[in-house]
Write a structure and sequence with these properties.
By secondary structure, the chain is α/β, with parallel strands linked by helices. The chain folds into 2 domains: about 1-40 and about 50-120, no CATH class; about 125-400, Aldolase class I (TIM Barrel, Alpha-Beta Barrel). It has helices at about 1-10, 25-30, 55-65, 70-85, 100-105, 110-120, 195-215, 235-245, 270-275, 290-300, 305-320, 340-350, 370, 380-395, and strands spanning about 50-55, 120, 125-135, 140-145, 150-160, 165-170, 175, 190-195, 220-225, 260-265, 280-285, 325-330, 360-365, 400. About 50% of the residues are buried. The structure holds iron/sulfur cluster. Iron/sulfur cluster binds near residues 180 and 264.
Amino acid sequence: MFLLRIYLLLCASTATALAPPTPTHFRLARGSLIPPPLLPPLAPNATPNNPMSLLDLDSIEHFAESHGLKEAHVSMLYNVFLRRGSAGCGLSEPRSDLPSLSELTDKSFPKSAASSLLSSFSALSTSVSKVVPSSSGGYRLLILLPTGQSIETVIIKHTHTNGKTRYTVCLSSQVGCARACSFCATGTIGLKENLPASSILEQFLHAQLLLASKDIPASSLTNVVFMGQGEPLDNYGEVLKSLRGLTHQCLFNLSPSRITVSTVAPVPSIIKRLADDAPAVNLAVSLHGATQELRELTVPSARGTSIEELGAALDYHAKKSGRGAMLEYLLIDGVNDGDLAAESLASFARARGSQLKPYVNLIPYNPTLAGAAFSYKTPTDERINSFHALLKNEKIQSSVRWSSADGRDAGAACGQLVLGE
Ligand code: SF4
């Protein structure tokens, strides 16, 4: 019960955005409803290199329970850790070190529990091993996990016409990926491991720390996209926990409307589950073909389901969330960029209903090593514009996402971030 109570505390501020946890969520969080070919779910604190991360919410809950801490203590801990102890909620200055004993006890955190906590937990369980700046003002971070594996996290800079700058962080949810989409470098290495929620949250913290080291306020990191390595819905429980951490006011305090989960929708029923659990989080579906045959050309995992099932899951999500999903459509020369393909895409989008129509994001194929194996090429600008014009004629809301200078963009589809290439 206590464990559930602490979890409720962590979710309290997002009660309307993310559905309150129930025992069902706890089962889900441990992955029992996620179908194969997934790896077994990670137990809390399963990483071999303890100490545990302060952002390992499960372990913090267990610690609180075993040390008789109250909900207020957990809130205080995160307030001190993420906010340097200033009043109110909302992150102001990120830190990479543990709070000191006096910082905690000054706030009436019980002394023996504070000292035990500081010897059992570390501020971060991951570290940044490399930072590569991009020509457009973003950064690519190579992050070393406690298991010895590495992932990449990308920070994307956007400058508005009014001169204001904001940043989006693109998070990885797995090391590698089991889904083997034909254009994706990550898919070629297979699934190595699921990331625990703490490693997902730490990517966000590393991004804030990096920006802070460049004198860029943490508050300018406003958006999150799950478009890095991995299929987020194949690691559903941990991704859901990370969504709770990202949106909780005493952790990272992001609005759910600033977060996008991008998926190839390998299991449409999981989209329905996401609609139930986190309706306010944006959904982007990598479609790449609006007929069963066309979609299977680039997304082999679509073979286990039908395009009609996917459509029904999108309709369910739209009803629950009150808005349509983003449909990401990678345009590959001679594969899915013809007029017939555009008509089937328009028809798929139109079938979603008048109020909650999806928005179609056309992404010209960005050459990857994986795509080269299939001789994939970027369509000509003329073909891209003609495909787009056909959608517009059909009154489908859409735009073309031309590549940014470094080939990465917040609107890019999963697998088009060309990580590691
Ligand atoms: S595009 Fe996404 S789902 Fe497909 S293989 Fe790559 S990471 Fe996995």
